[in-house]
Amino acid sequence: MDPVSENPSSFQPKRPAGLKLLRNTPPLGFQNLTCVNETHTGYRGWLVRRVCCLLFVWGCEVHPSPAGDIRHRVHGSERVRQALMKACSPDETKAMEQVMPEVRSHLGRLLTITQTFISPWLLRLVSWMLLKFFSLIFCSVQVNLNQMAALHRATQLKYPLVYVCVRQSGIDQALICLTLFCHNLRVPYTIYPAHFRQTWLRSILQRLGVILLPEGCGSERDAKMDSLYSPVMTSFIGELLREGAAVSVGICMSGGHSGQWLARVHQAISDGLVPDVSVVPVGISYDCLPRYFTRPQAGLMSALRFAISLLKGDHRGSVRIHFAQAFSLKEMCESGKCRVDGGRPLQDLLLTAILHDRMDTIFSQKDVSWLLPPAVMPELSPADRQQTIALTLHLMYSSTTSMAIMSTSLVSCLLLHKHRKGVRVSMLCRDICWLLEEVLFRNTDVGYGGSLVGLVHHALSLLRPYLLLAAAPPTGEPIIAPRPDPDSLLILSQHCDSLTHVFIHEAVGACAVSAMLSEVVGCGGGGDLEFDVVLGQEELTEKSLQLTHLLSPGFIPPCQTAHGFALDVVDSMVRCGVLVMEEVQKDTPVCDFMKRQGVLSWAVSDNPDQSSDSDCEEPDARSYKLSQPSQCPELLFFLCSLLSVRLRALCWALESLHYLPSPITERDCLSQLHAHLKNRAQLDKAHYETSSIDLVRMVLRTFIDLGVLIEDGQREDVYLDVSPLFSQCAHKEKLLQFFKQFMYN
């Protein structure tokens, strides 16, 4: 970053000074995809400068679609024939002659998916339109040229490429396809499991290689209930890869259906259709994504408002697309790197610690079989299912860690988690410098450049609709604070998610330290937190491990155990300066030393009234103290606040369980919990960011895994019911206190 040449206190938000640098001078080998000029064509002249984008698009190479009749090969595949025979087997109500025409007619509708192909002239036309469109909504679309060269080398291996990204919006995979097209790489078939009623729109998308849900299926959940859908799609994906076509897959962090597409890719290797597949994790970072793409609204007025905002050209952010190193799927699976060791349900790991204060079960791995439930692709063997789950976890983590940190993420995080009541711009600039150094220290890429004031100006211009600005007398320096309304806080919180992944070790460690300090206060009869205390390594690791099990997939490295992650959490607290190692005399048991310091000694015992010297026979390997008790709380509370949004959502949802009818469908439970969290935020007039729909999905998944809600899948839809165990107020209160202990007060 360039040194600051301006005085931060003289900052006046008039025009985005940093946009010129971000748009026209991408540093360090980055290219702005939307900046097309005559140098990208083989021609020169004043006329070329006016049609250079069209000439560039028509000069890009378009790889032909797979040749041959894929529909015929899919229909004749062994997998589809076996599924067809099983579906046509006579039952007690219908004869074979009545069933066969119905099944074959339904199979014909499913096989219309195989008519998807890539039309060269339509691809060029849409690519030209996308270049113009993205230049209106983004000031730049940054791509690393070195990564594109690596992709060209990967294509020389003659293996099909599969691009995998974490789904954030409806334009993620369009950006991937456009980037590959502009660099003369094969445009992938895009798996977009959505339903479009407009026949003309479905026809256009299918001619662009977009694989949609079949007609009559409103969602992936409806499609998985069809016994013929999975065999047809598995055979179709296999035939595409067999012909050398590339595929683009978007996985969802909270959904249980994303793993099925990776399973179908792996099945193509197992069936011998392709010798290997190169998988490319893709990370996409947005400065400020237009809300129309995150929450698309139907209707003429919403489309008109969106078009007006494009014409105005205000508040345009940038995009950074990161293509990670391609890896061999076959080598990954055969080497044993991509595997899931026998995990245990979350309730088996944590319930004994929550209800009985026993820690002997928390050291196992958590089961995440919901990423590919047995109802999805039931033909998979248990080994293939576990391998696909491990691959999904690996790609979730790889795609997430590939995302660059944008300037809006830094500003949103500081305003939401450190300066919620407002901050002067000069102090905000200093904090951004500190936070930027911490991000770079963790080997995380940033998606911006330029002077500090220009970057802050750029971020504030993008976030201005969600902020309050005032002038502080007597200098008139701006004071900035988050706008206290639900929409603004939700947007700012979404920008903070990427930084939560970067500081996840420190955030978990800070919450564990806060929980231990709260226990000290509880044992001392209440009062303020006491920071000048000694913390044992074993207890700190156990607290970190408990919170680690509550994290969603994508936070923990897939090749690391939860216990290893918890040990790294303690080490990270020392590296970042929050904790320092406390030296204890060797002839003094740690527990006695801690008691003299006024710290609770944790001893695992069924009877708390009984104590003996045996509790002190095996002291902790290490003990720690807060490095600067007088200054540390500010940093500690900032790190705790990164996870407080998720923990608060768990607490509020648990308190709202008694409002739910029983039993209730999973879809209705999700909507009603969402309504309860929004009402709670309205009553408290604070923490509106806790009521996002993504957090509600995370809460629902956690409650099912913990056994708070019991699934009943015997009916047509999945029904949920509160378990008898947590219908008891005492157990519900213990779980609530378990969540609250990690939240700073």
TrEMBL record:
Chain segments carrying region Disordered: 604-623
Pfam families assigned: GPAT_C (PF19277)
Entry's Gene Ontology molecular function annotations: glycerol-3-phosphate O-acyltransferase activity
This protein's name: Glycerol-3-phosphate acyltransferase 2, mitochondrial
Any single Gene Ontology cellular-component annotation: mitochondrial membrane
Source organism of this protein record: Cyprinus carpio carpio
GO terms under biological process: fatty acid metabolic process; glycerol-3-phosphate metabolic process; phospholipid biosynthetic process; piRNA processing; triglyceride biosynthetic process
Location of the GPAT/DHAPAT C-terminal domain: 307-711
